[in-house]
Structures are given as C-alpha cells and as structure tokens.
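Design job #97: recover the sequence.
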C-alpha cells in the first residue's frame, strides 16, 4: 500500500508521515507549489491524504498552481480510491463534490467533537468551515462550534474531517504558543485521543 500526501503548506505532511510509518504504511509527499511538475503515477498510489494549509479552499481550487493537484484529486475520486481530507483538505473535498464552505469565526485549540457513539478532543486551527454537505454526503460528527466536523460520501471512499487528527497535544501547544491563551477553545489534553489513530486505521482499510 502506498499513500500520497498532498501537502498544502510546507511542513504539513511531517506528522502524517510519522503516524503512517508507525502503522507500517509507505507514503510519498507532494507539495503542488514547490513541485508543480512532479509526475505522480496513480497506478502506484492506493489512496490520498489532503493536508491542511493557510487560506481558503476556493482560492486553492482557482489557483493555476493548484490545478495539477485538483486534477489528481478528481482522478482519485473517479477511480474510487480512498481520499482523506483534513481541515483545508476537508473543505477542498467538500467543494469539489458539491458542498459549500464559508468563512466563520477563528477557532484555536481543542474542540470536543461528537461522533455517533463517542466524543473526542481534536485540535482545531481554522477560520472557514463546511456549511453544506456535498451531494450524497453523510454527516459523521459535529461540535458546538462547527456543525459539519466530519463527513463521508455514499458510494465513494471519501472521508473529511475539520479537526487535525495528526496533531499531538505537544505539537498543538507549539502551534498556539503565539496566541493568547484566552482565545483557546480548550487546553490541550494529556495525551492524543485514541480516535485519532482509529481514524487513520479506518482510512487505511477503506
């Protein structure tokens, strides 16, 4: 199994790579802005992860620099290969599949996300959110501050999450170090929520 990580900003793939390595999965990283002409052989790629990044999903999809990545994601979806979008990646998938993304209040810190049978504290750092599910979208999780925290799509191997399941409490603390603590939604948990690894494992089995 080989997983392609589409890195939407420098350094965003590192945490994913470490987690996948621990799970015994091979991965390749592609940054569409730093490696615009990179050739990706889809026959060798089993699934794709689309990372977070700064800015707005609609701007990425309109950018001439992002068109190779957009085309690759379209091909992955057409081939019904698994795709996992996190934060910006979650929003990109929603837009590409007919959903809506709109600007919201900035959210920093750990948000209690309610799945069907359990809750989890997931790291959030964003100012946009999915407001309308894509066509045939299925709501998987919500929170008090974000109705569509996670979704899947009927008939497709798509999984989108607003929360950063790749960010550990230690990493989150470093990211928030320049932001006043009074603006944090919640403080960091003592250890990563088990649901984070479980989602990666589920994705690898799609």
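Job complete. Output follows.
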């Amino acid at each position: 199994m080989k997983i392609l990580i589409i890195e939407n900003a420098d350094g965003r793939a590192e945490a994913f790579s470490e987690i996948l390595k621990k799970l015994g999965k091979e991965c390749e990283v592609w940054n569409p802005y730093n490696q615009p002409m990179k050739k990706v052989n889809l026959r060798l790629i089993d699934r794709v992860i689309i990372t977070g990044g700064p800015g707005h999903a609609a701007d990425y999809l309109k950018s001439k620099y992002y068109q190779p990545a957009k085309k690759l994601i379209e091909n992955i979806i057409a081939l019904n290969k698994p795709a996992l979008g996190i934060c910006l990646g979650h929003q990109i998938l929603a837009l590409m599949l007919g959903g809506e993304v709109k600007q919201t209040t900035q959210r920093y810190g750990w948000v209690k996300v309610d799945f069907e049978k359990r809750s989890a504290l997931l790291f959030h750092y964003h100012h946009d959110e999915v407001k309308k599910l894509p066509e045939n979208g299925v709501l998987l999780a919500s929170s008090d501050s974000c109705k569509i925290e996670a979704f899947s799509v009927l008939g497709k191997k798509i999984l989108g999450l607003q929360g950063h399941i790749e960010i550990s409490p230690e990493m989150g603390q470093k990211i928030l170090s320049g932001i006043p603590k009074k603006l944090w939604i919640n403080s960091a948990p003592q250890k990563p929520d088990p649901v984070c690894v479980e989602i990666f494992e589920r994705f690898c089995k799609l």
